[in-house]
Amino acid sequence: MERVILPYEKRIDFATNLVARQLFNIMATKKTNLCLSADLTMTTGILDLLEKVGEHICMVKTHIDIIDDFRDDFVVRLKQLADRFNFLILEDRKYADIGHTVSLQYSKGLYKIGEWADCVTVHSLPGEGILKALNGSMNCITKGVFLLAEMSSEGNLITQQYKQETVSMASKYANIITGFVCQNKDTFQNPGLIQLTPGVQLECSKDDFGQIYKTPEKVVVENGADVIVVGRGITAAKNPEVQAVAYKDALWKCYIKRISG
Length: 261
Ligand code: 5FU
What we know:
This is Uridine 5'-monophosphate synthase. GO terms for molecular function: orotate phosphoribosyltransferase activity; orotidine-5'-phosphate decarboxylase activity. By secondary structure, the protein is of the alpha/beta class. The chain has helices at about 10, 20-30, 45-55, 70-85, 100-105, 115, 130-135, 160-170, 215-220, 230-235, 240-260; strands spanning about 35, 60, 90-95, 120-125, 145-150, 175-180, 195, 205, 210-215, 225-230. The strands form two sheets. The protein has an eight-stranded parallel barrel with strand order 1-2-3-4-5-6-7-10, surrounded by five helices.
């Protein structure tokens, strides 16, 4: 069965990672496939924004190391919001080191990401050891990994071969792989895995540093995105709450169009 035409609720049973199951479930229940990239640098900004848009998103994506006033109680409050509004937390750490270092970066240091993030992003570049180490650190099965198979930025160095080898590397760690960060539906076939796609705005455009934006129609209907990451399209809007609803509605409409064939 082709992944992109199956509804989220029918894909739950194919998922081998618990976070993927939860995410399919949340999307089907809340009727939203919007992931907010909350790239703000003050904790109050992030928490206030989530108070307003929490009900419209299936996941929040953080870059914990851009926050100026990080304190431990921030993650406590973030978790409370995630529980209240039923969304997951993805820390976009893009781990890319040897397995031993990554296992320390995951569980130690100032941020102790493994304690609060439901899932994290990981590069396949260093080889399989990175997944082996995370598999050991994530000794509870309620955590997940989005492996980077493609990027949205202009001129990135990922090749077709790199992408294919990334997907086959993931197949050995099915219990921790939630899905792939990628741009195209042919990247993988398994309906139990989730396509997370960043680089989305309502109009096609670019930023000044090579980020390429595609429309909801393009990424969801043509390119197979399951969870869609929107950052500045919402955070830089005059009224982020109104804009989050606009993205949620546009993205869900495209998903319905896709599964309706
Ligand atoms: F893996 C990727 C990628 O290929 N492109 C991205 O843009 C991740 N991102 C992240 O999504 C990036 O680090 C930002 O946090 C977010 C996109 O934010 P924007 O404001 O919508 O451009």
